Q: What sequence folds into this?
């Protein structure tokens, strides 16, 4: 349950003042330790600012929740409607194929020049499609109204899908989504505004692929190993020459807190992911540190049998789609990866997978509210990729969002068990009610700096994230609000400017990699 904002602010006020005073009093210590709040590094003339990169990524990471929920509810309605006629999955496919054939034939007829010699063939195809559709109606005892209902559901679910069409779907069929979900995920207007922003940036933007076939809304079921699979979408922006892989997070923030005791077990970060039983038996893959076992299996493990009979992991499925995209319609594009919450962790592990073998040049990962996913070995692999200019990671977190602080952490050598470590440039954003704090601060696990390591370990533990109304701090609307509040500062810095500053990273990047 979300606490009304005025009450939440009043209850948090004493804690915010206490932390603010402590923050100010430690300024001399931070100066001595060379850990400033936010370096203002001029952005390159031809480079995008951190804000310019983050804003569209947050829109994508947010809209995937709402859009996949619309698709999920549409599938439920489709199946319930089909049950009225005792239709099998095969029969539903027959109806869909007949409707699609009619729609594409009609569209072709509209486009053809009547003087063209091929116009008679196009007209003949349309007439055939109408007859097939009539046969379908008679076979399953459907009316024209029934066909319209099925056509509506199929159109919502079709792929590829333009951002303009998604905008239309959200406006027309918003009531398919439960009121509780709408309220929890920012409300109808907020989500529609996100897709409007996406369309305004690039009217030709589209979703090339979306995989939400094996969805379960409960993160608890995922943790306990029940039937639920990763949800992702591939967005293409011709205007920006950018392909973005977006991973959806858990739809229930309470599940994160309830299941923190299950989040500690690690496994080797072996690449590539599962491809076949034969390859698994002769496993000769390299390991790049260790990561959370559940997260790894979710993205890199064997999946449910797909339509093509394959059990290939989601990671390798996505890699195959990307290789095909970059070889054909997206030559010269840049690869971005994003996600919020659980999706943030998925995005970081997948970005590492995509960058490790250098297939896409530089990979940019922009994650939001991501929990820990790997150990020091995983971080060391990230360092190597960063120094080779193969990966860039901007990790956004909200102060008092507890999810990016789990599991617990400690400096190297100070804990007897495996400890999680974050990667990349962390932009921590603060609420306006948090007095005496800046709007945002930068943290990076500077290579070879013990003082930096101790500082980050202290500030990245769960007690530092506790507050009244902890759930609201984790949700996308709050991330959007704080990103806008921090926009002035974030427009002054660039991703490359941060990575080129050895005082921040502890290393130099002098290898030129094709974008």
A:
């Amino acid at each position: 349950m979300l606490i009304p904002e005025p009450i939440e602010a009043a209850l948090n006020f004493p804690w915010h003042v206490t932390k603010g005073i402590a923050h100010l009093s430690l300024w001399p210590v931070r100066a001595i330790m060379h850990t400033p709040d936010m370096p203002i590094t001029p952005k390159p003339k031809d480079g995008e600012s951190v804000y310019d990169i983050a804003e569209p990524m947050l829109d994508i990471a947010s809209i995937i929740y709402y859009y996949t929920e619309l698709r999920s509810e549409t599938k439920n309605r489709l199946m319930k409607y089909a049950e009225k006629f005792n239709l099998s999955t095969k029969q539903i496919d027959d109806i869909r194929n007949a409707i699609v054939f009619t729609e594409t034939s009609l569209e072709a007829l509209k486009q053809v020049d009547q003087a063209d010699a091929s116009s008679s063939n196009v007209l003949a195809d349309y007439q055939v499609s109408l007859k097939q559709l009539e046969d379908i109606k008679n076979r399953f005892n459907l009316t024209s109204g029934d066909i319209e209902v099925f056509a509506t559901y199929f159109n919502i679910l079709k792929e590829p899908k333009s951002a303009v069409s998604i905008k239309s779907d959200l406006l027309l069929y918003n009531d398919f989504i439960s009121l509780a979900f709408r309220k929890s995920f920012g409300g109808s207007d907020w989500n529609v505004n996100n897709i409007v922003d996406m369309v305004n940036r690039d009217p030709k933007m589209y979703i090339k692929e979306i995989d939400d076939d094996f969805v379960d809304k409960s993160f608890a079921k995922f943790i306990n190993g029940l039937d639920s699979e990763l949800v992702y979408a591939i967005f293409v922006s011709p205007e920006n020459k950018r392909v973005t892989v977006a991973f959806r997070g858990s739809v229930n923030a309470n599940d994160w807190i309830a299941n923190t005791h299950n989040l500690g077990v690690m496994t080797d970060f072996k690449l590539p992911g599962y491809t076949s039983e034969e390859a698994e038996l002769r496993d000769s893959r390299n390991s790049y540190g260790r990561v959370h076992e559940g997260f790894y299996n979710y993205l890199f493990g064997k999946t449910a049998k797909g339509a093509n009979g394959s059990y290939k992991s989601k990671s390798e499925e996505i890699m195959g789609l990307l290789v095909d995209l970059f070889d054909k319609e997206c030559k010269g594009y840049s690869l971005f990866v994003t996600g919020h919450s659980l999706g943030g962790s998925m995005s970081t592990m997948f970005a590492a997978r995509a960058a490790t073998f250098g297939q896409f040049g530089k990979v940019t990962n922009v994650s939001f509210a991501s929990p820990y996913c790997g150990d020091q070995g995983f971080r060391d692999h990230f360092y190597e990729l960063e120094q080779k200019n193969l990966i860039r990671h901007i990790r956004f977190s909200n102060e008092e969002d507890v999810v990016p602080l789990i599991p617990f952490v400690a400096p190297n050598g100070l804990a007897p068990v495996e400890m999680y470590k974050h990667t990349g440039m962390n932009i921590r954003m603060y609420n306006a009610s948090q007095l005496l704090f800046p709007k945002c601060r930068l943290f990076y696990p500077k290579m070879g700096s013990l003082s930096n390591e101790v500082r980050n370990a202290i500030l990245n533990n769960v007690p530092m994230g506790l507050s009244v109304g902890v759930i609201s701090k984790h949700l996308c609307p709050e991330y959007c609000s704080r990103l806008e509040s921090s926009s002035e500062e974030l427009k002054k810095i660039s991703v490359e400017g941060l990575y080129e500053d050895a005082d921040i990273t502890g290393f130099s990047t002098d290898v030129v990699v094709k974008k």
User: Anything to note?
Assistant: Confidence is low (pLDDT under 50) at residues 217-227.
